Amino acid sequence: MKGNSPLSPVLLKLLSLRLLQSLGVGVRETEAERDQEEIALERMDAVRAAVDVQDTAALDALLDPLHAADIADLLEQISPSERADLLALWHGGIDGDVLSEIDDSIREEVIEALPEAVVAEAVRELETDDVVDILEDLDEPAQEKILDALEDADRAAVEQSLAYPEYSAGRLMQREAVIAPEYWTVGEAIDFLRGAEWLPDQFYHVILVDPRMRPTGYVTLGRVLSSGRSARLRDIAEDSFRTVKATDSETDVAYIFNQYHLISCPVLDENGRLAGVITIDDAMNVLDEEHEEDMLRLAGVGDDSSIQDGVLETVKSRIPWLFVNLLTANLSALVISRFDTTIEAIVALAALMPIIASMGGNAGTQSLTVAVRALATRNLTGANALRVVRREAAVGAINGAAFAILMGGVGALVLGMPLLGVVLALAMVINLIVAALAGILVPLGLDRLGLDPALASGTFVTTMTDVVGFFAFLGLATVMLL
Amino acid sequence: MKGNSPLSPVLLKLLSLRLLQSLGVGVRETEAERDQEEIALERMDAVRAAVDVQDTAALDALLDPLHAADIADLLEQISPSERADLLALWHGGIDGDVLSEIDDSIREEVIEALPEAVVAEAVRELETDDVVDILEDLDEPAQEKILDALEDADRAAVEQSLAYPEYSAGRLMQREAVIAPEYWTVGEAIDFLRGAEWLPDQFYHVILVDPRMRPTGYVTLGRVLSSGRSARLRDIAEDSFRTVKATDSETDVAYIFNQYHLISCPVLDENGRLAGVITIDDAMNVLDEEHEEDMLRLAGVGDDSSIQDGVLETVKSRIPWLFVNLLTANLSALVISRFDTTIEAIVALAALMPIIASMGGNAGTQSLTVAVRALATRNLTGANALRVVRREAAVGAINGAAFAILMGGVGALVLGMPLLGVVLALAMVINLIVAALAGILVPLGLDRLGLDPALASGTFVTTMTDVVGFFAFLGLATVMLL
Questions:
Q1: Residues 408..467 of B with a Cβ closer than 8 Å to A: which?
Q2: ipTM of the complex
Q3: Which domains does chain A have, with CATH numbers?
Q4: pTM
């Protein structure tokens, strides 16, 4: 064929370009990212070399200038044995910030590798929310070691935070807050701040409180700075003021930060008094973790699995869903085995049936993913659920019809069996409608039950489309072709 | 059986509880979320009723107290015709903030439904980055309408931002920044801020610049407030100071904010001079969009699809990947059709082959998702890629062996065909190893090529596991059973 039909390769190329475009293919990685990765790799090689020759001075020179987050990344990316060697040799830079930054999956290992004095020193400089974050995932003895290292007041504050339920605002907040009585003037506030012995590392607002320590509003530092000394804080407070309760879930807290673009938010105890403050970096962390959870759950992976996990942890996080899948796959097998005489009569069916199932699985995953994401961002609610379900049904029908014509044509013309074409077409329509509906109804149903919609997971929806696909295709074939 | 064997139901229940736990099943939706949804639903009904009877006073009472983000949500969740009716009747509260908050997918529709004067008034009060954000997704004539509404200085600033490439820091930044010469004292800075005619809505830092307007550091407002009037700004500047270039990609910007917990970051032009500032809410938006993109791409859905899209838009965003899937599914069909004589001889194979394929597809999706996520968070790099690939191979082999024993036992004992059991077991091991490797190597390869690893998408990995699964199973059956 080469050279004989110059039109068709050009057309093909144009078509495939068009297809690539509509698939959203584009270059993602940037030059800056590539540069950074190269620098990080070179640094890592230099660190390895320095550890090999026990050159602590070289390690200091390499690691001391790094941000805590970058030191944590380096520790995460080297192997466990390299990590142990490095920590045995060098722990000057392992301060509280590095411990905070490091991934949960290796934090316990790192803490155990460090001398007790280094850990004690590290946690003492942290704010209470960071200490709580570190403590949460540790075993009892490791927790005790860290609590013992804290000053009494800090220890009490940390223990109070830990008394709140896991994944609550109380766990997320730092107890250190900058507050002022609402009747103060700007001048009084500035004088107070100038005289304060201790202030949080980062603070963006002054929280106004009444005499019973109940927050009544907040003033941004920008307003404090740009107002005259005699202005009353209550007169320059912001209009909108939101608080959360210490028992609110961290999911709700993250939603409020994201929805209302908050930078920090006061947390109230059961009596409406100020218990602490949550800042945006904590809220961002929660959002990030929930994204990850949704993605991993959709794929049927344990939601605390990480790229740093060892082989056995990884097996443990993946095998439960594979087991579920094995059970559900047996359902499909059961359906197919009911039609063994049909398949015996027309073996071509065995080759065609995975096409129907695979199209259904794909379409179902599409609906499912959009639905899970919309539920997580609270864009799919009782208000529009019915409209979205109707839309999914229509989309399923249209896509089904489009691929029915295509597959029907293939069956009729290529395979030379018109009736087989009709069977393929009908099965395709049925399965794509069922797929679209399963993809939206399963997560919606789970959500109504108060369960995480991401649990719907590929596995369940794919099973449904497999079973329906095989049944529709083989059933129709039995009725129409035998 | 009922009642005869009390042990087995109890055991089953225990086992299934254990399984549910290891699947991570837990209640996700919170009480607060449920309450909020109910309030939102009631409000929506009230709004609908008010629109029906054309009661603008009632609409004012219902909508005016709402945050712009909540008004935007309400507009997104009602149907297009309800939206048109509402906007025709009530546009008092549609200010710049609402236009900023509203989803891209319906923003153009909303802007077209509003009187020009309302749009003009709305955009005039926005900061430049928000105007750019709104303009980006509009058609040329709608863009012109908005540019015309701006004051000359703002229009010039917006057009300068639009001159930067899409998805660059230059598009993300606001041009309004609070700056001070580094030699100023705290007192001079405070006096300047008190006298300033205009300040950004939110600012958290004072950026220090040299006489050529090149940023040299920053001071947090907290430090300004807590230092004496005579302190020099340069002496209370923060240690670590990061800037981005206006041409940097927004992906890199979001990464820097997340990695180093920034609240705002100066943007430099090609000469190293201050061009603007990016604040954390913009960076959070980018992170959010990229998460969504990864999730949707993995599922083979167009990455700008939204729950608000109409039927035809949805069809358009989903059909390309379904078409790719159809092509790849035909590959599987081709493989199966090569073994038609084998299937004719042993029809049971037709029922069992989807089990092997489905297990492979599931395991592949697990590896793939973990890999795509780790690449996005830059936790999977050249430094640990090899180790992760080795781990995946080991995990695939262990999971393969576990399910090989299970399926082999089923084949041998339940189906009474020991050799079929061996075939099932071998095919399972082969396919789970291939699945685990495909799940990591395909996204890693795409990443090396500078493409988005999420494009690996369920489709490709599933095809690979389907083809290998069918081939291994039917091939082994042909050799060993015929």
A1: 447, 450-453, 455, 458-459, 462, 466
A2: 0.85
A3: 33-163 (1.25.60.10), 179-298 (3.10.580.10), 311-481 (1.10.357.20)
A4: 0.86
